[in-house]
C-alpha cells in the first residue's frame, strides 16, 4: 500500500524516504513542495528543484497524493465561505473560510465525520460519529481553501465537525505540519483546538507541551445545567475538567480560554456568573461568549439586553470577556450548525485554472 505524502510529518517523511538515501535538503524540498507550495500532484513534487531522480523514482513507486473533492463553495452575506468536501474514504465534512478584517483568513476545519459527543445545540452531534479523519484529509481542507484564497491564511481552528482531541494522533500531526516553517508556516499560537472536555487528552496535551492553544467549551459552571446540553459532563464531570484547565493555565502561564455558548433563558443569570467565579477561583481565565445558533429553534440566542446584563454580572470574575462573532448563519457555517448541508447564500463557481 502506498503512503499518502500529505499524511507525513517531516521526520516521518525522512524515515519513509530512507531507502532512496536522500539528503536532508532533498527531504525538506519534498516536504515544502507538498505543504508550503501546495503541489497539486505527485508528479509536480517529483519535478521540484533539488529533488534527485532516485528520490523522484522512489516517490512515484511508493507514494500517492489523494485529494478531497470540493462538492461546493457557498458564500454567506457576511463574507464567510463554507466548503463542503467529499472524501474518497467516505463521508462529507465542512470547512469555513473566515475573513479577518480585510487582510487575512482563518480556516475552521473538521477533524471527524460526525461527532460522538452529541452536544444538544450542535447539529454535528445529531449526525452521530462516523469515523476519524486522517491527517491528509484534515490538511487538505486548509490546502484547498488556501489555494483559492485572495489573502493569506494565518490561522486554523479545529472547531468544525468533530471533537479533535478524540482524534488525537491525526490532529496533532496535522498541527505540527501546519506550524512547521517548511509546511504551512502558521504560528503555533494561531492554531486552536476546541474541546468539550476530554480530560485525559487535555492532560496528555499539557504533558507533551504543544505550542497550540486549547479552547474549553464549558457553557455552564452549574453541572446540572451543563449536563443538559453537554452530555460529556456525565463521563468527564466539571470538577475534573476544571483541574485539567488549572494544569493547562499553570504550565502555559496564560489565561485559559473558556468558551461559553450563550443561550437565552438558560445560562445567563446572576447565578451563572457566580458559579463561574466559584468554579474558576484562582485560575486565570478569559471568557469567550458566543451566541447559540440552533436551526431547530430549541435554543435561542440572547437578546441584546439579556447579553448586556450577563456581561455586567461577569464583572465579578475580574477576567477579560469577549464576544466571538459566529458568521455564516445563512449558509449553515456558524458554530454548531455544521452538518454537511447545502442551503442559503451564493454558490461560488470553481476557480478558473490556467490552460
> What share of the residues lie within helices?
25-40%
Find the structural class using helix and strand composition. Answer: alpha/beta
Shape: globular
Mean pLDDT, to the nearest integer, reads 96
Quick one: biggest sheet?
11 strands, mixed
Number of strands: 15
Strand neighbour order, sheet with most strands = 14-13-12-11-10-9-6-5-4-3-15
The stretches of 5 or more residues where confidence is low (pLDDT under 50) are: none
Distance between the termini: 33 Å
Backbone CA Rg = 21 Å
- Amount of beta strand: 15-25%
List the secondary-structure elements in sequence, H or E. EHHHHEEEEEEHEHEHEHEHHEHEHEE
- How many helices in DSSP terms? 12
Can you put this structure into words, describing what you see?
The chain is built from 12 helices and 15 strands. With 355 residues, the chain is α/β, with parallel strands linked by helices. Strands 14-13-12-11-10-9-6-5-4-3-15 form an 11-stranded mixed β-sheet. α6 runs parallel beside α7 (168-179) and α8 runs parallel beside α10 (238-252). It starts with a strand and ends in a 7-residue tail after the last strand. The mean pLDDT is 96.
